[in-house]
From TrEMBL:
InterPro entries: CBS_dom_sf, EAL_dom, EAL_sf. Residues 7-16 have a biased composition (Low complexity). Residues 1-24 are annotated as: Disordered. It comes from Streptosporangium longisporum. Residues 1-248 form the EAL domain. This is EAL domain-containing protein. Gene3D superfamilies: EAL domain (3.20.20.450).
């Protein structure tokens, strides 16, 4: 997944077109956003990469437009560079442009553009108000806002609204997420709603994740975005996303396919390559997540994670300090796994270093030469599939 934030508006005329990717913000902090989260917001985390891709405003839940406007004003002037999720009552959308004018003005005064805001519509509405609601959502989308539908599985939002409103994001009910780990019936509802939302082309967000059991449940539904107390930044300002818990299995149990089935080509450079050469390698292809340094026999000697390396270079005097010097000075030891390693064993290797959980694993052949890399996100998806 690219590390540049690329949030664009999706056309309302194609409800079954997959939503555009919601990706990590900058080439920095794959396990979280740099610095601590601003007061009044909760990080929305991509569970595959650990990146913070948006911020949920904590206010605006009183069911009226005034509380949403107050939230925007409270955040004005703060360092909130990521897309902002705001709660918007359906009554305000149904009320038309006059009802929404205070929100537009508050956002304008705060310096935030519509394309940097995701409006989560919540609340009841009568059937005869449905047409006005859809018209209002079309108008907001035309201005540039991204639209989300909230409280799925707990509120009184008709499910066919997902087809008519074509939201960018579908937000599950907090109560549903809270109870799913202990209630198989609610877990079935959550899995069905997540599949339904993805089928209409929307991303799915699980709010209020408090513990690893809830995280495991929503991961099992195929949900990729979440926020909650479990996913808040620690003292270092980084978000640590727990890896899926691998339950002990009896001897001889299936450990999953071998990592060579998930092999991707590695970008390799000689171990004496300069940092400038690595910058050029990353700049030539945004999808590259790592560069592997190898010796004359193609054996890996170091690994350069895209995010950490570019942060070092982009820092003050970074290029002057490192540009012409060997890139190995900034490299981490390569995390290698033989090509015959089962997925479960590879996941255990990935989890040994909590600072590098999402770094690519380097796959080697029988004599230790680099064959390619595997991404931990691919292994996570395989483990989730095995548990079903």
């Amino acid at each position: 997944m690219p590390h540049d934030l690329n949030v664009t508006t999706r056309a309302h005329t194609a409800p079954h077109t997959p939503a555009p990717p919601l990706t990590a913000p900058v080439p920095g902090a794959p396990a979280g956003m740099p610095g601590t989260a601003p007061v009044g917001v909760t990080p929305v985390v991509d569970l595959d990469t650990g990146g913070v891709i948006a911020l949920q405003a904590d206010g605006g839940h009183r069911g009226n437009i005034s509380s949403t406007v107050e939230t925007v004003r409270a955040l004005a002037g703060g360092d909130v560079p990521l897309p902002l999720l705001l709660t918007l009552p359906t009554s305000a959308v149904i009320g038309g442009s006059a009802a929404l004018a205070p929100l537009h003005e508050a956002l304008r005064a705060s310096g935030r553009r519509p394309r940097e805001v995701i409006l989560t519509v919540r609340g009841d509405f009568a059937q005869f108000e449905r047409g006005s609601l859809l018209t209002g959502l079309d108008g907001l989308r035309a201005i540039g806002y991204l639209i989300a539908v909230g409280d799925l599985g707990g509120g009184h939002i008709p499910l066919d609204l997902l087809a008519d409103a074509a939201p960018y994001l579908a937000v599950l009910s907090r109560d549903l997420v809270a109870q799913a780990a202990r209630d198989p019936r609610r877990a079935a509802i959550g899995e069905g709603l997540a599949a339904l939302a993805r089928g209409t082309g929307a991303h799915v967000l699980a709010p209020g994740v408090h513990d690893e059991a809830q995280l495991a449940a929503v991961r099992g539904w195929g949900v990729r975005l979440a926020h909650g107390p479990l996913l808040t930044p620690g003292p270092s300002g980084r978000v640590r996303v727990p890896l899926p818990v691998v339950e002990p299995k009896a001897p001889g149990a299936v450990l999953g396919p071998r990592v060579q089935e998930f092999l991707l080509p590695a970008v390799t450079l000689p171990q004496e390559a300069s940092a400038e050469a690595v910058v050029n390698a990353f700049g030539g292809e945004p999808s590259i997540t790592s560069v592997i340094l190898v010796d004359e026999y193609q054996r890996p000697t170091g690994s350069l994670d895209r995010s950490r390396f570019l942060l070092s270079i982009a820092g003050r005097f970074g290029h002057a300090l490192h540009g012409r010097k060997p890139a190995g000075r900034l490299a981490d030891p390569a995390r290698t796994v033989p090509r015959t390693t089962p997925v479960i064993a590879a996941m255990q290797v990935a989890g040994r270093d909590t600072e590098r959980v999402y770094d690519d694993l380097v796959v080697t052949d029988e004599v230790g030469r680099c064959m390619g890399v595997v991404r931990v996100a691919d292994l996570i998806r395989q483990v989730a599939a095995m548990r079903h």
